[in-house]
Design a protein that fits this description.
Layout: H1 4-14, H2 16-27, H3 39-52, E1 56-61, E2 75-82, E3 85-95, E4 114-115, E5 118-120, H4 124-144, E6 149-157, H5 168-173, E7 182-185, E8 193-198, E9 200-209, H6 224-244, E10 261-269, E11 289-298, H7 304-321, E12 327-335, E13 338-339, H8 345-358, E14 363-367, H9 373-378, E15 385-387, E16 402-404, H10 405-423
Parallel strand pairs: 3-6, 3-7, 7-15, 8-14
Antiparallel strand pairs: 1-2, 2-6, 4-5, 5-16, 8-13, 9-11, 9-12, 10-11
Helix pairs in contact: 1-4, 1-10, 2-4, 4-10, 6-7, 8-10
The chain binds zinc ion.
């Protein structure tokens, strides 16, 4: 009899067609978010499939979280299978939602066509392919090793694309991660890379004030847009160069994100954009209000206080130099950076599985943007968490998004081998 790893890998190989069909079924349930379509349907599908395989099923509606309504209920599913002995719980978490389709598709975005070894459609790569791979890995493991120590969980959760409040955050608040030791999130980070975490986020709105007056006599008013212009100038002169100097030891990909960054998300001043059907002219007014939303991404070497302090210092500097300058600063939301240690058990386990399956050393990466790991760390208080899954991050949210079947099979093998390592089957 061959060794357990080889047996499991060939069993996963045998499930290639099942993996394809499963991915296609998931993609054909359009779970667009916003608004959060068909969550109930996809959770029901997963519940039925995993229930038949002996998983205990829990359906959880995240009531009164953002977006939850009778029309668009925020459903989540958790499937759990106990082993024969006491041991760790390995939890695979995938989000079930997908982003809008957008323009530029050459295939049916919900057709899940299989063309030359790739399945096409919205959500194939981000991240129904990863979800399907984790299910196949778990099912193959359970068939091959019915007796093991610990438990396996697979969750399909809502709303990752809009912050995860009706999904992982809600489950974490309800204590669903209290008994979990290892979390793998099969986001499309590439089959040979382990994503240890993500940078932090801090969003704020800056508003400058002015005074409305007739546009022919602007000196009788006070232009809020010019005040905001002074803020932008200060950002250009001092803030952006300073951010570019702040480098991180986090292995963020792509490399351009290996420093502090800030995006000016939006900028509004003066009269609202007219209705496209309106063909008249704007009235002559001095704008008395300008608003800017900033999206600051920060590093594990920085603190949220520092990030906030940078902006308040900048605004205070402009205020000290500029007559009649007044502002409001409103913080909108924030997420701390998180990075799992390279010697954490889930990392070393997936690392050696990648070596066995792909014959290469895994690359450690950190995501420039956040994903549900933030809630598992901050609310669930679990550090032993990574993102690992098939697919190319660059394809996420794009037209003609696809997932390669070979990549799904390989990453299912990696997940399966990690289960052997973590759950010690006999
Ligand atoms: Zn995703």
């Amino acid at each position: 009899m061959s060794d357990p790893n080889t047996r499991l890998m060939s069993r996963i190989e045998d499930k290639r067609d099942d993996l394809i069909a499963l991915t296609q079924d998931l993609v054909r349930i359009p779970t667009l978010n916003p608004p959060g379509e068909n969550y109930r349907e996809i959770c029901g599908y997963l519940a039925e499939r995993l229930g038949e395989k002996g998983f205990e099923i829990q359906m959880v509606r995240a009531e009164s979280t953002p977006g939850d309504s009778k029309r668009y209920p925020r459903w989540n599913v958790i499937a759990r299978r106990e082993g024969s002995g006491v041991g760790d719980c390995v939890h695979f978490n995938s989000h079930i939602d997908v982003v809008e389709v957008g323009q530029g598709w050459t295939v049916d975005p919900f057709g899940a066509d299989l063309i030359d070894g790739k399945i096409y459609g919205r959500g194939t790569c981000d991240m129904k392919g990863g979800l399907a791979a984790s299910i196949i890995a778990a099912e193959a493991f359970l068939e091959e090793f019915p007796s093991f120590q610990g438990s396996i969980e697979i969750s399909g959760t809502a709303d990752e694309e809009t912050g995860g409040y009706g999904g992982v955050a809600y489950l974490a608040e309800q204590g669903h991660y209290a008994h979990v030791q290892h979390v793998i999130i099969p986001e499309p980070l590439q089959k040979d890379r382990i994503c240890l975490g993500h940078r932090g986020v801090w969003w704020a709105e800056i508003e400058t004030h002015g005074e409305i007056a007739h546009g022919s006599m602007p000196f009788l008013g006070d232009c809020a847009v010019r005040h905001m212009g002074a803020v932008v100038r200060e950002m250009e002169d001092s803030l952006f160069p300073a951010l570019a100097q702040k480098h991180t030891a986090m292995p963020v990909v792509p490399e351009g994100a290996r420093q502090s960054t800030m995006n000016i998300n939006s900028f509004h001043g003066g009269q609202a954009e007219p209705d496209p059907d309106f063909t008249g002219l704007p009235s002559a007014c001095v704008p008395d209000r300008a608003r800017m939303i900033i999206d600051r991404r920060y590093l594990i070497e920085e603190s949220e206080d520092e990030v906030r302090g940078e902006i308040t210092d900048l605004l205070e500097k402009v205020k000290s130099e500029r007559e009649n300058f007044s502002y409001d600063l409103r913080e909108m939301w924030s997420v701390s950076p998180t990075m799992t240690e390279k010697d954490a058990p889930v990392v070393t386990s997936v690392q050696s599985a990648i070596q066995d399956v792909l014959g290469k050393t895994a690359e450690y990466v950190v995501s420039p943007g956040t994903y549900d790991q933030k809630h598992i760390d901050r609310i669930g208080r679990l550090k032993n968490c990574i993102a690992y899954g098939p697919g190319l991050l660059e394809l996420a949210h794009k037209p003609d998004e696809y997932i390669s079947v070979d990549d799904m099979v390989d990453s299912a093998k990696v997940m399966g081998l990690s289960l052997i390592d973590l759950l010690k089957p006999s």
